[in-house]
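Exam revision sheet. Question 4 asks you to relate a sequence to its structure. Input first:
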Amino acid sequence: MKTILIPVVLVGALASAPAFAGNKCDVPVGEWQPREALEAKLKSDGWQVRSIKTEDGCYEAYAIDAAGKKVEAYFNPKSLERVGGSSEDSEG
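Answer key, structure tokens:
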């Protein structure tokens, strides 16, 4: 029973990750910082930004982080704080 329960719990946790990020991004559009501000912040942190789009009220960035790992990360559009996402070493 334990061997079946663990994969089910993991799948449930992974499926809820985008919803969790969305809850952290409940910000009126008038309070959002521009995408360019997030891009500048990430570049100053050593990231190579591939693209930034809007997803579930958050900014979603696809990038290579300072450690050279592919990252898909969600950011609060007002504070530009990271609120979720994954990197290539945490996906598998």
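Marking note for examiners. Residues 2-15 form the longest helix (14 residues).
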